[in-house]
Amino acid sequence: MTWVDSFRQKAKESFPNFFSFNSKIRTRIIAEPTIDSLIASTFLIKTLQHFAFNFSFSFQKKITEATINEIEKDSSELIILLYQNLPQNLIEKTTKKIILFNQQQFNQEKTIPISSLIYFFCKEYYHEISNLSYLLPIPYIHNNSEPNESIIQESLVSKKLEIKKGLTILSSQTLPLHKSVANTIYPYLPGISGSEDEAVNLLIENNLPLRENSRFRNLTDLNEEETKMLLTSILLKRLGSEKNPEMVMGNTYIIALEDENSFIKDLKCFSLLLESCLAFSKYSLAVLICMNPSNKFKAIEYVNNTLTGVVSAMTYYLDNKKSIVTETDKITIISLNHNLDYKLIDIFSKIIFNSNVYPEKIIAVISMNPASQIICNLESSKNLQPFLENLSK
Predict the structure, then answer these.
(1) pTM listed for this prediction
(2) Mean pLDDT over residues 242-262, rounded?
């Protein structure tokens, strides 16, 4: 029995006739503002709309006792929570009907995103949710990992997704070649990411023509030899060695029905767009785009702000490493303060962590908000709980 079959059985047992609840009762969805919960929310909202539920949704970073007290006073009769980790004792403090969706609840592997679980749960009741199956690989892409085989098959069978092999840098299918290289931050290319002029110079140095028959080329126009040349050049320019080689070469996931020149036709670009919306707290806009990609133009400015802000902070980091980086045997602290927009601290930290510049260490990136309050992000391949407990002491 595959994990999909196992999950479906468990879901049926845990939530029998879920969508036969009286759709008129007031329902509230509260989700963690992550890529995974964002996609999960989209599947759930679409299904609730189909069954004409009376519902509202919001995003909140943490569920605290104050949140529970607020829920207790809320007029909603049914509360749905989408959180990766949530102490059960908090939920037990309210008399409300609460449904919690997370991995632990279904004894799933940690490699299966909540969004995948929600998708197959909703599909049991609303088969047309498969029209959004192209969203399934996005949490994997965001975490720089290959999607589970069941996820790939689901997206391919519904004919919503195409898979191509090659360079996986940003906008590989849609943007002109030099713009694709310049806009790449996964992996980050020092001196090139953020600069179209330097991207053009890189291509010229490798004898890679920018145009073909009066039109700009993109990555799909490169032949095998040209692809190898560009790959070699990118590998030499990277910030580090990357934890996963898929950051440079591997599968590219393409939305089949999206326009050829659409920025989000490549799911790696879609992921960056959603990540930018989350960074600037545009949660509702992100959900709107997932449900209807034609709304993507409203979010392009946030993508541009993300690229500009990250490149500026990365340039400062590379120019001042000796004075702003403190290393011990277990932790690396990067103090960027006001030189990194605190809204982008998660994205900056992810770039440093995935680049593998500081392998096997906890990475602490420090920024400041406009009120000069310290904002810190921690990244590690290991469980951070023991470290946090020692820190609090």
Answers:
(1) 0.86
(2) 75
